[in-house]
Amino acid sequence: MQAEYLLFNLIVIIGPFVAGFFPRTRYVHMWPQVFGAALIVLVPYIIWDIQVTGRHWWFNELYTMDWRLLGLPPGEWLFFITVPFSCLYIWHMLPESWSEFRVDARIWRLVLFVLLPLSFVLWLSGKEYSALAALAMGLTPIVDLLLKTHIFKQIKILVFIPTVVGLTFIFNTWLTWRPVVLYGVEYQLDVRLGTIPLEDFFYGMSHLCYCAIVFEWLKKRKD
Questions:
Q1: Is the C or the N end of the chain the one with fewer CB within 10 Å?
Q2: How far is Cα 164 from Cα 46, in angstroms, rounded to an integer?
Q3: What mean pLDDT is predicted for residues 91-105?
């Protein structure tokens, strides 16, 4: 079914969309910041997507619409809206009191100093997707520091990231098992968890961490 990628996006967003109208969630009141964050982070990730589609990955025409915008099917464009919308609902609903608990910053310095050199080594070895995914995740603590959002100091991040990983495993299994998305294995380590390339987890985590960072930054500007 060519509309399957569109159906994927509908399933991803429907629960948080409906729940957002419940008074206790107050999520609907955060939609300007939610969509603002999704659209800001969309820009570099769409550029990345456009540049590598046809090499690092491509889209199965059996499950995507025929027409393309800048080489990407409509479902792929919607992916960068529906997934942040739903995952920022999770971030928003984590207890605000958890923000008072702090994570040792040395954990994220370790992430930074491991992933950035690793990305350089991977790039030199021709594993371009692996390198870019490691680089994207490795830069998240720097962006968090520059924008003074401090999400990596909050205990919430230790719940948010495993939740994102779990959801990635569920929903990316759909995309990679059908497969809606196919990969050029020469650009990755070709290590898979089920049907999902390892790099997809770093891609997804980085994307949604940036969304959480920008979401918190927009909230601070609003206040």
A1: C
A2: 20
A3: 73
